[in-house]
Design a protein that fits this description.
Blueprint lengths: L2 H4 L18 H10 L12 H4 L5 H11 L4 H8 L3 H8 L7 H11 L8
Helix pairs in contact: 5-6
């Protein structure tokens, strides 16, 4: 493991996650509140703030990998060259509405994620 990976980036914070039955949520919140862990419900954060680098290229690559397709296989399904898929995934070629619809059909997602 490289030194960069060993370095803590949390600045003294620890992330703790719980997986509990829905029926125990209120009870768990009360227990955590008694320790000062939560004062109120967290604010909703816009997705753009959480994923600032998200765009059609990222969506294309992610959807393709989720479907376990290579660029060449996806290219064959939508009727373009593998180079076109690569260029779209790297943001060098725009994904138009028609292409977004073809990709969406092949990748089983809503076409708007690519626009």
């Amino acid at each position: 493991m490289s030194e960069a990976m060993k370095k803590r980036t949390t600045g003294g914070y620890v992330e703790v996650r719980f997986r509990i039955p829905v029926t125990k949520v209120v009870e768990a919140k009360q227990v955590l509140a008694s320790f000062g862990a939560i004062a109120e419900e967290p604010e909703s954060v816009p997705w753009e703030e959480v994923y600032p680098d998200f765009n059609g290229s990222v969506a294309l690559r992610g959807a393709r990998k989720r479907e376990a397709l290579t660029q060449k296989e996806l290219a064959r399904l939508v009727g373009v060259s593998q180079t076109h898929i690569s260029e779209m995934e790297h943001g060098k070629r725009p994904i138009g509405k028609d292409m977004a619809r073809r990709l969406a059909k092949a990748l089983k997602v809503n076409y708007r994620v690519f626009l």
